[in-house]
Structures are given as C-alpha cells and as structure tokens.
C-alpha cells in the first residue's frame, strides 16, 4: 500500500510520467488533473484516473527513475555511465567514497544507494546553488543521510583517508589526481569524467606520473530499439557523448 511520504512513480506513458510523493497537492497534466493525496492507500500496480478519465499507473520507483528525475541545474551522468562506474569501482555496503563535483546529484544518488546502510559518500562542490539543489534531490529520494554535503573547493588534499573510491567530475580533473592518491586505499580505484580530448589526455598522463596503473578510458553508448509489427528498428535519437570515463588503480611503489 502507498503511504504518506512514499516515493511513487506515476506512469501514464513515455512522455507523461512523474516521480513524486502523495500530498495535499493537485498534479496538472494535459490529460487532466490528479489529487495526489488520493494515492494514499492504493496498491502499487493499480491505476488511477484524472478528472478527464486518463489512466496513470502507480508504480514503485527504481534507481533509474530516481537518477533520471533529479532536478537538473547541470548536465548529469546518465545510467549508462553510472552502471559502468558502479561495476568498475569498489562500491559496497559500508564503503567510503569521495565525490568531487556533485552537480545535480545523479551519480550521488546511485553511490548513496549502494554504500548504505553503514557507508558514506563525501561530496564536495564549490557552487553553493548546485550543492543545495543536489541535497534537495537526495532528500526527495530518501538517500541524504548517507551523504556528507561539503560546500568547498579542494586543492591539495581531502580530509578523508583510506577511502574505497574517488570520483572526480570537475573541469580540471588532473589537478585532483594527487589528492585522490593520498586518500585512496592501495589497490583501489578512482574515476574521472572528461568531456573533451584535451582534458582526457592531460588526466591520463598525470595518472601515469602519480603511481596509477590499469588505466582505462571508454565511452558508453546505449541505443533503444523500437519494436513495431513489421517495422522493428533502432531509435533514431539516442543520448550519445556525455564524456569519456577514465578509470585508474592506485599502487604503492
């Protein structure tokens, strides 16, 4: 049953879907309106109708919806990139993770989900507006308690040591390679997202100089398929370049 403060994914179709909580509020759509407090007591999987008779389904939200529905003030990392990061990093319940450049909190949402109940994500962001927006997104998704929100810019060193993973998502990624090295456990990884070749090249060369090995660079693509009777084909539009992801592992010389 849906309870007050539950997060609900209200699905009409691919264009009309919403991530929200039941409250004394009216949701207006081009298919009519819904009084959201009427969601309370309904079962997940049930339908609800607008005043005009349009059908929406009450679904459980998953991590994908939480990531894609964050309120954006920046470009976000998409699930296609986040999935690769989660599988190539040392992320587990109880892990300590540093994230520099919180953006809108999309990756933070995934990291917090996987380090709970006993881990922590230490996020750093120099733009206060971005940080406040990300914190709101994490609170809405019910994951803020596993994140420490820090409004500051790191130059030489992070306060946390012996962490399991470091994520760098700033404009000059190479500048924090040494700081990441000081904080990482031996044999653990960092990742950086680089939007252009100049940043990518400088970051990789810096990693090679600072005792990192197993350096990998990749770009992730996902293309959906339109399944139609007699005319199944790939979608013409797809989220393509969001950045190159660099992974590297710390060694102790």
Describe the fold and architecture.
By secondary structure, the protein is α/β, with parallel strands linked by helices. The chain has 2 domains: 8-61, Vcp-like ATPase, Chain A, domain 2 (Roll), CATH 3.10.330.20; 65-250, Vaccinia Virus protein VP39 (Rossmann fold, 3-Layer(aba) Sandwich). The chain has helices at residues 63-68, 79-88, 106-115, 128-140, 177-183, 197-209, and strands at 8-11, 17-20, 26-29, 32-35, 47-49, 55-59, 96-100, 120-125, 147-151, 163-168, 184-194, 212-218, 225-226, 233-234, 244-250. A 7-stranded mixed sheet has the order 9-8-7-10-11-15-12, sandwiched between helices. The protein has a 4-stranded antiparallel sheet with strand order 2-1-6-5, with no helix packed on it. The chain is globular. The model has no long low-confidence stretch (mean pLDDT 95).
Sequence stretches where pLDDT stays below 50 over 5 or more residues: none
CATH domain topology of the largest domain: Rossmann fold
Q: Reading side by side through the largest sheet, how are the strands ordered?
A: 9-8-7-10-11-15-12
Radius of gyration: 21 Å
CATH architecture of the largest domain: 3-Layer(aba) Sandwich
Going by CATH, the homologous superfamily of the largest domain would be Vaccinia Virus protein VP39
Q: Quick one: biggest sheet?
A: 7 strands, mixed
Terminal residue distance:
56 Å
Count of individual beta strands: 15
